[in-house]
């Protein structure tokens, strides 16, 4: 989902906003309404997803939507109001792959400040190898490590998560990996 | 920071929005502009902070701002655009406590869907026991486990993080704890 998040008008009254320092000691310029003075904060978005695994294989989805249409991804999407990170990750896995699975532990937490996002992936144990992908996915299929289309992955966060997954699997121990992507 | 996040007017053109299903297959009602059709997504916010420790003591800050003015908290605040979770956690620790420290690993990741927030805390090793708190903090001081004002803590996420911190410390091993708070 790409969309223009720039704030031009006040969400409360519709008047134009101006970029300036608020009067409360805040040190960052904000979009402030020129009429009612509402301060509009702009914050990072969370992307939540899973590493669905079946034996030594991992489930990837071929994207049917922009951006990166035709590239392969782990099931993931924007976290919604009213859900937790793990609930959102499970929802995206159901929507994009039509998979059946049991949620496991938080696996990667990756900040991508350049685009204002934090990506959180959970491991998920598949309980079936039959998938019923939604309209956002062209194809959902299982890959062994040496079959992963490394040059056809949609996002850097997917590549990093898969690399950590197979490394931890070889080491026989999974932990949570938190890091920044410049 | 409490503020009304309800979207009444379009951020692009200022016209009124209506709550309805978008035309793209989305299954949730969104605030959609009645004039230019811009879809406004509302997403959870991240709160980032630290557990600053000095020997067997932990640093808490007495809040000088609402909500929970006068209650004790770990240094934390809303993550900003352009920073990572750990950069935001470090910034809040500097702003609220004026502490000197070295950032360590991600410690807790707590979803609070009822208020649309995710709280992420890092451990941070203090390199000085002298603090210079900002205007948001009445007092910053160190507490041993048996001195923690458990009934005077500002937030449930602070209590949960401190409980996990002292439990892991006793066990001699820190890991990342991810869970939901109903
Ligand atoms: Zn206004
Ligand atoms: Zn509009």
TrEMBL record, chains A, B:
Ordered alphabetically, the record's keywords are: Hydrolase
One short Pfam name that applies is Zn_ribbon_Nudix
Supply the source organism for this entry.
Limnohabitans planktonicus II-D5
Could you tell me which residue ranges the Nudix hydrolase domain spans? 40-166
| A GO MF term | hydrolase activity
Tree of life domain = Bacteria
Query: What cofactor does this one take?
Result: Mg(2+)
Q: Where is the signal peptide?
A: none
Name of the protein in question: NUDIX hydrolase
> Which intervals of the chain form a coiled coil?
none
């Amino acid at each position: 989902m790409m969309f223009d998040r720039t704030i031009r008008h006040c969400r409360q009254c519709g008047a134009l906003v101006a970029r300036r320092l608020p009067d409360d000691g805040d040190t960052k310029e904000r979009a402030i309404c020129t009429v009612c003075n509402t301060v509009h904060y702009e914050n990072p978005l969370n992307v939540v997803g899973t590493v669905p695994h079946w034996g030594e294989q991992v489930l990837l989805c071929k994207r049917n939507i922009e951006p990166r249409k035709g590239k392969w991804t782990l099931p993931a999407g924007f976290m919604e109001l009213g859900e937790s990170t793990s609930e959102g990750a499970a929802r995206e896995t159901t929507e994009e792959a039509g998979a059946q699975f049991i949620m496991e532990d938080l696996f990667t937490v990756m900040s991508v400040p350049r685009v204002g996002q934090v990506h959180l992936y959970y491991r998920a144990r598949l309980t079936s190898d039959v998938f019923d992908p939604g309209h956002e996915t062209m194809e959902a299929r299982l890959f062994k490590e040496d079959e992963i289309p490394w040059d056809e992955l949609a996002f850097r966060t997917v590549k990093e998560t898969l690399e950590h997954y197979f490394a931890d699997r070889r080491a026989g121990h999974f932990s949570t990996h938190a890091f920044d992507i410049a």
